[in-house]
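Section 5: illustrative case.
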């Protein structure tokens, strides 16, 4: 998800998170656990 220039792929983050909160020293991404599990399974199938 991390780009060489230091950013993140917005589309990839949207697959995992439905909401994001940014504070001084913390970033929280919130979303459904089923989306995260589905993504992890898909990534492990590629490896």
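Designed sequence:
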């Amino acid at each position: 998800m991390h780009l060489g220039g230091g950013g993140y792929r917005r589309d990839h983050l949207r697959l995992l998170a439905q909401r994001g909160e940014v504070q001084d020293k913390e970033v929280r991404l919130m979303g459904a656990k089923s989306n995260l599990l589905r993504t992890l399974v898909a990534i492990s199938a590629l490896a």
